[in-house]
Amino acid sequence: MITVWVLGDQLNASLAAMAAARPDTHRVLLVESAAKVTSQRWHIQRAHFVLASMRRFAAELRVAGFEVDERRSASLATGLAEHRAAYHPQQVIATEPASRDGLALLHRLGVETVRTNQFLCHPDEFAAWAAGRTSFTMEHFSRWQRRRLGLLMDGVEPAGGRWNFDAENRRPPPKDASGRWPSPPTDALDVIDRDVIERLRPHTWGAEPDGTWATTRQGALARLEHFVERVLPHFGPHEDAMTTASWHLAHSLLSPYLNIGLLLPDEVCEAAEVAYRAGRVPLASAEGFIRQLIGWREYVWGLYWLWGPEYATSNALGAHRPLPPVFTGAATTQMRCVSHTLQSLHDRAWVHHIQRLMVLGNLALLAGVDPLAMTRWMWASFVDGAEWVMLPNVVGMALHADGGKMATKPYAAGGAYIDRMSDYCKGCRFDRKQRVGDDACPFTTLYWDFVARHGDRFERNPRMVQQVRAARRLDDLPAVRERAVEVLRRLDNGNL
Predict the structure, then answer these.
(1) pLDDT at 402
(2) Helices 442-453 and 465-473 sit at what angle, rounded to 10 degrees?
(3) What is the CATH number of domain 123-189+201-307?
(4) Domain 2-114 in CATH: superfamily?
(5) In which element (H, E) is residue 473 found?
(6) CATH class of the domain whose range is 312-493
């Protein structure tokens, strides 16, 4: 018999190595690695999501007639060795993994890999698209994807005659935000969930699972239907907004299922386009959502493989500050935006992209937090975390640690941005208009300190030169920089 080794982020019978498997010729191996469980301080909902989904996938395969060797081993390599000793398979195959370390491990262990179909653009195809380009922006990639995949196209032209409706999707939170967006379905926990939670509790942090995140394909499909029919029509205008009235707004909450195979990107895109063609979803909503999938998501995936392992150690801004204790739960903060975002992360292992980029990432950027430490923390903390997701998004997008390979300017902002795009500043102990003094917003203080600190680098950047000149004209710049030292000291000590 041939063994198909299914990794924990490949939980779909349609994926490459599983697609050709038959119960009479193939046995399936799944390994829960103790080394992986203890390798990082995972959010319990992040770890539970993967392990519970693996166990339920194994059960589904057994119902389909497969013999499944479901192992709990010291490591992935140990699990494979134990399987080989017990079953003596004539061959072990696996779908290409989503990480470089995973691919190297399979090669070392003599596992034959099958080209992945878990994404719509294979890394080889992305590398061919990028070859010879001096600029390969996400917008150019997204349009190329639209054309070759035929999504939201009317012949050779984009549906509606426009490629991008993003300019209409940047509104601040509405005043009537409470109850505006339908909440996602939830599932009751069972004996599998309780067993996984007990196993994970000593090694994890955060609020325990409450059924928010589905751990079966059936549950993931139910959430896809809920999103397309009830939420996608409202997707778009407030996607960059942050509000205490809703933790999810009109975001799809589907990325966890896509990242471990419970959903596949082609079926998700098809569901959105069908709803648009049927008149149930506005074009702007369908376009913005599909662009997130075939544009941004696959762009980040391609960059992860294109730029290689050295990208992980990029640190162009010389940032070496340890992860602040407020991020790890060892401290609290009076910054309402940070406090609310971290509380939401604690409760659900998820916050949306602007909270990640412009609250957590922005604070780490302005404070000079070590990029690799920030990447590892976000990888372990988010239910949709993965190395390929977090490296480009944190190193390139959030922390500008790659020196501008991914983003032409750092995503740095002061308290004015937080105030404009959220309701966090109302009732906050700090004043977002103040740069100096005990009541000054730390974001505002640190923003001007950051611009001044890196002025020599960014004065040649056309998207930053005005801010650099403005910083140099500040009458109180010495006081701002002195206040920044105090803010950073308090951030390090966990009493900001």
Answers:
(1) 95
(2) 100
(3) 1.25.40.80
(4) HUPs (3.40.50.620)
(5) helix 465-473
(6) mainly alpha
Q: Which residues pair with 120 in a beta bridge?
A: none
Identify which of 232, 238, 231 has the alpha carbon closest to the alpha carbon of residue 172.
238
pLDDT digits (tens, 9 = 90+) for 382-405: 999 999 999 999 999 999 999 999
Residues of the chain under the 50 pLDDT cut: none
Q: Give the 3-state secondary structure of residue 72.
A: strand
Question: Would the pTM of this model clear 0.90, i.e. be above it?
Answer: yes
Domain boundaries, the chain: 2-114, 123-189+201-307, 312-493
- Find out whether 298 and 121 touch, Cβ atoms under 8 Å: yes
Token pair listed for 19:
């697609």
The conformational region for residue 329 under phi > 0 = left, psi -120 to 50 = alpha, else beta, is: left
pLDDT at 171: 78
Eight-state DSSP code of residue 425:
T
Please name which of 93, 94, 98 lies closest in space to residue 119, comparing C-alpha atoms: 98
Sign of CA dihedral 261, 295, 343, 168: negative
Closest CA to 72 of 30, 112, 42: 30
Of 34, 37, 43, nearest to 347 by C-alpha is 43
Quickly list DSSP for 299-322.
HHHHHHHHH-GGGGG--TT---BP
C-beta separation of 396 from 303 below 8 A: yes
- Provide the β-strand partners of residue 242: 422
Please, which residues bridge with residue 30 across strands?
70
Q: 25-46 pLDDT, tens per residue?
A: 999 999 999 999 999 999 999 9
255/285 Cα distance (integer angstroms)? 17
If one counts every other C-beta atom within 10 angstroms of the C-beta of residue 40, the result is 17
* Of 466, 496, 469, 471, the residue nearest 481 (C-alpha): 471
Contact 197, 208 (CB under 8 A): yes
For the chain, the average pLDDT equals 95
Identify the CA nearest to 286 among candidates 322, 236, 248, 239: 236
Residue 255 tokens, joined: 């990325």
CA distance 80 to 82: 5
Structure tokens at 219: 């549950």
Residue corresponding to tokens 């992945």: 116
Residue found under tokens 């974001």: 443
> Which residue reads 């081993």 in tokens?
73
- Residue corresponding to tokens 């300017």: 409
418, 430 contact by CB (below 8 A): no
| 376 alpha-carbon distance from chain centroid | 12
337: alpha, beta or left? (left if phi > 0; alpha if psi -120 to 50): alpha
Quote the tokens at residue 254: 């589907």
